[in-house]
Fold each of these.
Amino acid sequence: MKANELASVPVLMYHQVIKNPGSVYDRTPKDFRAELERLAREGYVPVTAAEYSTGKLDIPAGTHPVVLTFDDSTASQLKLGSDGEPVDDCAVGILLDVAKKHPEFRPVATFFVNGEPFSGTGGDKALGWLHKNGFEIGNHTLNHAKLSGLPAAGVQREISANQKAITAHAPGTKVVSMGLPFGIQPDPAGLALSGSSAGVSYKHHGAYLVGSNPAPSPYATSFDPVGIPRIRSAGPDDEDAEFGSSRWLDKLADGTVSRYTSDGDPDRISYPKSSTAELSKKHRDRGRAY
Ligand SMILES: [Zn+2]
């Protein structure tokens, strides 16, 4: 088993999961299921954005972390039925079903939500369900704001107000991840990670971009919490497929891009000696070269 915990991690980005996709950002339920089945078959184990960005990757030896992220809190992602559980054809319903068939495939994901999330189900019920079931709720601003167009106070208001709404919907939630609307950073970019407004402070361990390549290991010198790249979910022949998930997963599978492979020990960071310079200073005491 060749562990390499300084190699790349795919952070996949989803928007709507619907029968008739309206844009390249959407996938059909069938394609979404096929992508999850592929990930399970290829030894990926989902981790949340929070686990990834804080370097708490506790997955079995020989497996690879993947972060599943969902933007915009649409009904196609999570819809609860009359029994209070996700309906079969929403994204969470499909994820739970795939995980049932593949016991190592943890059903976890990160949802970057806006104000009034998950229409139809409602914020209290939907965010309450996510929180109770080990899914991560992240911030995507209250009004899906283009942060580069706002003054610093406006940026902090958008993020703080949404954090306040999230914790009102799902008390006890700790919001530590931020999905940048349109992938656009505020100025200065660090405002996506920390700030405060109207008595509410926020502190994020990672701010996520839109596109277009695998993310570095959280233990690597190249890891930058202010702009973590994501990969748009896409089929092999979709528009701009070279930046989409099918093609990147091919490259991670065939070794064109080296892929994070776990050593099975969450306290130790294993990597080939030739990668030693890539281990960030912060994690040096946990490093084990071989
Ligand atoms: Zn968005």
Note: The pocket of zinc ion is lined by residues 71-72, 140, 144, 181 (CB under 6 Å).
Amino acid sequence: MQTEDFSTADFLTSPISLKLLPSTSFINDGGELFIGDVAVTDMAAEFGTPLFIYDEENLRHNISEAKAAFPAGVAYASKAFLCKAMAELVAEYGINMDVSSLGEMYIALGSGVPAENIVLHGNNKSVLEMKFAVENGIKIVIDSFDEINLLHDVTSGLKKKCRALLRVTPGVEAHTHEFVKTGHEDSKFGFPLADSVAHRAIEQLFRLGHVELLGLHSHIGSQIFELSPYVETMEIMAPIFNRYSFSELCIGGGLGVPYLGNEYAPSVSEWAKAALQAAEQAGIAKDVAITAEPGRSIVAATAITCYTVGSIKEIPQVRTYLAVDGGMSDNPRPILYGSGYEVFLPSRADAFREKAVRVVGKHCESGDILVSGGFIPVDTEVGEIIATPVTGAYGYSMASHYNRLLRPAVVFVRDGNPRLVCRRESLEDLLRFDV
Ligand SMILES: Cc1ncc(COP(=O)(O)O)c(C=O)c1O
């Protein structure tokens, strides 16, 4: 959650911490930030702003870490950030991909992710989505009794078999924002354990000739900083899991990442270790595949977003507004969840940030805030490039056309080569849907 406005905590006013920046970041003697061996301000000049810059080496490292941490299988949760280049990385490393719509399935398949490595989620899958998944051999996570009926109709209609998991809500309250909690009973997702609802669903699925029910799934929420809710989930899931001879137990995603210099989150390796240990302690057989589907923890910290400062408005005794050329259309997390970010100048990344500002976008909403309580160097001027770190997850993927702003460009940079992976939208793009 957002740090208090105008707090003068050291971490906010000191130079930006390298731990919030992508892994190949370095700051030269002149204070200029480089990512992937390219100066960030050069990329902003070449590709324009707002601009998402992803550190490709960091992405590759995170995918490899997750793959090694969950040897039985890990799926990248593509909702966090998806484009062709990202899906191609997933395909290259041979990990699985979690998708939750026809659109995500289309991009995954079209980018070379094999159908057998794709798993379809969603609490209200359409007939088309179910048919597409069954036809292509995509694994399906079943979310409701209506979906069991739909799956029956689709598999018998197509005369095709389908692999499935059943999503269970274990009743675990993760300490995170209300809108991203999903493991508690009062949730639109999955089958509750209470009143044997999940048992009934399992029995029903066992009766469907075309469905191979591999196991259970749970996802308790997102941006979770503690490992104990996962251990608790394992303890709660073990009895129902062990009653059947299932082969897979998926713990979902949700591992948190630090957005502010004073936050700490466990690594994916630590998360996996805790989950695998908890599975063993809960009596889950060694040959069961304990799988996971992290999104944010793979991509969030690998990217920054660059903006150009357009106006600095001082309101004496109140605050200073620093307005940039993007806003809630490229990062809706602050307005959705009150999420906190830091802000810094890539051209002076070693500078102390002693001026309190509220970084706002250019949308027609007072809630269009990117950084509620940020700090920048006192001599920051209109026209300079500022950046928000840790914007690789749920930014571009949640981007909108509000006020008909053009969705930003995305660059992957590695070994001195920035490559444009999503071009900035054009004015013509805005009219493409009008008939
Ligand atoms: C079913 C499921 N799995 C995985 C994820 C990924 O979560 P995160 O990005 O927090 O790791 C989500 C996110 O909402 C989800 O709904």
Note: Residues 77, 79-80, 98, 121, 219, 222, 252-255, 293-297 surround pyridoxal-5'-phosphate (CB under 6 Å).
